[in-house]
Amino acid sequence: AQSVTQPDIHITVSEGASLELRCNYSYGATPYLFWYVQSPGQGLQLLLKYFSGDTLVQGIKGFEAEFKRSQSSFNLRKPSVHWSDAAEYFCAVGASGNQFYFGTGTSLTVIP
Amino acid sequence: SAVISQKPSRDICQRGTSLTIQCQVDSQVTMMFWYRQQPGQSLTLIATANQGSEATYESGFVIDKFPISRPNLTFSTLTVSNMSPEDSSIYLCSVARTTNTEAFFGQGTRLTVV
């Protein structure tokens, strides 16, 4: 069965520090992988996506993610976090028919 | 991308009543979905809204409780029927232009049932 695991429920980083959010997935075929961000009271905004090709994908707001098939992972990274990055981050796997499976989310707090 | 307008943005409803949520997209899309996000939880797919036919519901969700309409390729509604406090959640409309592409989300409807 398809599933997405985000092991870190909550992460706190200092502004300017680097960030890595973990995501592991279980899917029987080649996955479509996504990271979304949700600010308080808002919907989800797409940060980046992986369909095929280069396993390192660049997204908006300076985020990148690396697909590692051998580890079934799609971790999100940012070299220098800004206070405005504080939000909830969701990893998702896209299955056939555009059905999405979401992780439970990682809440990011940025301290000055 | 797609611009999605979801109404209402929030509501407080009495138990036993029903609420209809609207989702309007700025252009035609193939796929439209409805998700529920319970407090502090991730997103759970309720159903896929099919244009011109009955919605496809996920396990645990039924048409009598969550009737869905999709009269055309840019509009859908979700009704939460006979509400109870357990229905208090954020309900999100999502669209995808074609199959196997990224999904875009509306701002959500924050529903509180008292």
Short description:
Chain A is an all-beta fold.
List key phrases describing it.
heterodimer; A: 112 residues; mainly beta; 6-stranded mixed sheet; 4-stranded antiparallel sheet; 12 strands; 53% strand; globular; B: 114 residues; 7-stranded mixed sheet; 11 strands
Helices and strands in order, then pairings?
The complex is a heterodimer of chains A (112) and B (114).
Chain A: E1 3-5, E2 10-14, E3 19-21, E4 24-26, E5 32-38, E6 44-50, E7 56-58, E8 64-68, E9 73-78, E10 87-94, E11 100-102, E12 106-111
Parallel strand pairs in A: 2-12
Antiparallel strand pairs in A: 1-4, 3-9, 5-6, 5-10, 7-8, 8-9, 10-11, 10-12
Chain B: E1 4-7, E2 10-13, E3 19-25, E4 31-37, E5 43-49, E6 56-57, E7 68-72, E8 75-80, E9 89-96, E10 104-105, E11 109-113
Parallel strand pairs in B: 2-11
Antiparallel strand pairs in B: 1-3, 3-8, 4-5, 4-9, 5-6, 7-8, 9-10, 9-11
Q: Characterize the biggest β-sheet of chain B.
A: 7 strands, mixed
Report, as a whole number of angstroms, the end-to-end distance of chain A: 41 Å
Largest interface (CB within 8 Å) is between: A-B, 22 and 24 residues
Query: Which outline of chain B best applies?
Result: globular
Structural class of chain A: mainly beta
Give the topology string of chain A: H per helix, E per strand: EEEEEEEEEEEE
Distinct helical segment count of chain B: 0
- What's the count of strands of chain A? 12
Mean pLDDT of chain B: 93
* Tally of alpha and pi helices of chain A: 0
Described by strand count, sense and barrel closure, the largest sheet of chain A is:
6 strands, mixed
DSSP helix fraction of chain A: under 10%
* Alpha-beta classification of chain B: mainly beta
- Reading the helices and strands of chain B in chain order gives EEEEEEEEEEE
Poorly predicted spans of chain B: none
Radius of gyration of chain B: 13 Å
The proportion of residues in beta strands of chain A is over 45%
